[in-house]
């Protein structure tokens, strides 16, 4: 079964609207039909049973969970919570006069279509074919973009990391040299009160079961994770960065392994181990790097000979390149190639496989390829800044990571405050 991937800025993407700016105000699909049964009321906004049904279908489609009556029942409370959260996010952004334009949403729609190799307008058609109104996805994206902007423009002003805090973190990293660290992702389900316990436990068990049966971890995280990054990415973690129980569980896994649900004081965690190594073994020595990714997409019907010819064509076209600007310009001669650039990546946080490919790669040259479901992927180094000799991140890298952690904490507190101060009536 093909999984629809929803890419993110911090968010998902959505469909075409008119080019006029729209306030991040009351979602247009809330209670659009008179007399529609009400599922919840959030301050003055109404969430209907139709909204819940549509969002449930979207969650099942994008997370590759089976669309069965049993699964719908199991995830319904999580879907309602997400709808309530989205409404609160939009209300908070509107209060701050933060807007989301139709062009913002359209741009994300295009990104989803490109990621899934769909033609222009293909995403809306796909959703409609699955019985999902495209406006359902639009509203999810509108809420996520609005919240991303509120966090970045308002909450970020409250982030401050002192020099002493950076020095303390660096000392802790030095103390951990040689100890294991893990690149991991999580799905976190919050348990606010005792009445939520059974539903959260049941959902955690069901999600864990589906992941072990092959459902993509990242896709499920995008729909159900209630903390941190949209896709659940935790980055590299070591002693002192996670609860001891969670870190110990990661230590028992092999790469790509997934834990069963783990109950902590605040909720349930499902962890996936992506890589493990010892602190200080990062190939980058604490430096930062700008990396270009080149995807060479092939038709599913293409044979090996055709794929090899396509590869050679790309190599020939890019051979004169001296830098990433040249690569970007020359690659336009190969319609099946697409580029992205990630800047200032800590080399110590690169996946080991990619770090090895680009370790000694001169600027302007592409790496050996790795296979992807759609074709082949190459990497190129656009810029590289050396770090320290111990393999530890630089002070700037540490500060950036600590700022991200503090901003995540502020965002969680803001959401708790929004819940605490709102009048929420869930009628299911």
Q: Measured on Cα atoms, how large is the radius of gyration?
A: 23 Å
Structural class: alpha+beta
Subunit arrangement of the protein: single chain
Report the sheet with the most strands, covering strand number, pairing sense and barrel closure: 4 strands, antiparallel
Taken in chain order, the helices and strands follow as EEEHHEHHHHEHHEHEEEHHEHEEHE
CATH class of the largest domain: Mainly Alpha
Would you tell me which CATH topology of the largest domain applies?
Triger factor/SurA peptide-binding fold
Average residue pLDDT:
83
Number of domains: 3
Q: List low-confidence stretches.
A: 7-33
- How many beta strands in the DSSP annotation? 13
3D shape = globular
Spell out the CATH superfamily of the largest domain. Answer: Porin chaperone SurA, peptide-binding domain
**Alpha carbon gap, first and last residue:** 32 Å
- CATH architecture field of the largest domain: Orthogonal Bundle
Query: What share of residues are in beta strands?
Result: 15-25%
- Please give the count of helices: 13
Describe this entry's structure for a reader:
Helix content is 44%, strand content 19%. The chain has 428 residues and is an alpha+beta fold. It has three domains: 1-169 and 392-428, Orthogonal Bundle (Triger factor/SurA peptide-binding fold), CATH 1.10.4030; 178-280, Chitinase A, domain 3 (Roll), CATH 3.10.50; 288-385, Chitinase A, domain 3. The strands form four sheets. It has a four-stranded antiparallel sheet with strand order 6-5-8-7. A four-stranded antiparallel sheet has the order 10-9-12-11. Strands 3-2-13 form a three-stranded antiparallel sheet. α2 (69-95) crosses α7 (194-212). The longest helix is centred in the first third of the chain and has 27 residues, at 69-95.
């Amino acid at each position: 079964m093909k999984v629809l991937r929803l890419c993110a800025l911090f968010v998902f993407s959505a469909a075409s609207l008119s080019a006029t700016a729209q306030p991040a105000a009351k979602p247009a699909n809330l209670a659009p039909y008179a007399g529609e049964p009400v599922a919840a009321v959030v301050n003055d906004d109404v969430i209907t049973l139709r909204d819940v049904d549509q969002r449930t279908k979207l969650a099942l489609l994008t997370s590759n969970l089976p669309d069965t009556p049993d699964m719908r029942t199991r995830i319904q409370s999580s879907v309602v919570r997400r709808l309530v959260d989205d409404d609160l996010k939009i209300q908070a952004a509107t209060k701050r006069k933060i807007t989301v334009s139709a062009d913002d949403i359209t741009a994300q729609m295009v990104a989803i279509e490109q990621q899934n190799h769909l033609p222009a307008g293909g995403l809306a058609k796909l959703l409609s074919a699955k019985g999902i109104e495209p406006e359902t996805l639009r509203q999810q994206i509108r809420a996520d973009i609005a919240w991303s902007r509120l966090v970045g423009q308002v909450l970020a002003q409250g982030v401050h990391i002192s020099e002493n805090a950076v020095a303390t973190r660096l000392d802790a990293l030095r103390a951990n040299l040689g100890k294991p660290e893990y690149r991991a992702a999580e799905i976190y389900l919050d348990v606010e009160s005792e009445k939520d316990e059974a539903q959260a436990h049941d959902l955690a068990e069901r999600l864990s079961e589906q992941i072990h049966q092959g459902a993509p971890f990242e896709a499920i995280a995008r729909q159900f994770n209630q903390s941190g990054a949209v896709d659940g990415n935790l980055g590299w973690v070591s002693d002192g960065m996670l609860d001891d129980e969670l870190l110990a569980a990661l230590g028992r896994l092999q790469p790509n392994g997934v834990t069963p649900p783990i109950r902590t004081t605040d909720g349930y965690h499902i962890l996936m181990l992506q890589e493990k190594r010892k602190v200080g073994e990062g190939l980058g020595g604490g430096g930062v790097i700008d990396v270009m990714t080149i995807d060479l997409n092939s038709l599913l019907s293409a044979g090996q000979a055709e794929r090899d010819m396509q590869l050679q064509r790309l190599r020939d076209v890019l051979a004169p390149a001296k830098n990433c600007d040249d690569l970007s310009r020359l690659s336009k001669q190969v319609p099946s190639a697409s580029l992205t650039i990630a800047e200032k990546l800590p080399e110590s946080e690169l996946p080991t496989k990619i770090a090895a490919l680009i370790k000694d790669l001169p600027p302007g040259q592409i790496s050996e390829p790795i296979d992807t479901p759609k074709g082949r992927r190459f990497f190129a180094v656009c810029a590289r800044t050396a770090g320290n000799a111990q393999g530890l991140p630089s002070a700037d890298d540490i500060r950036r990571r600590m700022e991200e952690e503090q901003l995540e904490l502020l965002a969680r507190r803001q959401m708790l405050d929004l819940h605490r101060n709102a009048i929420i009536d869930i009628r299911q």
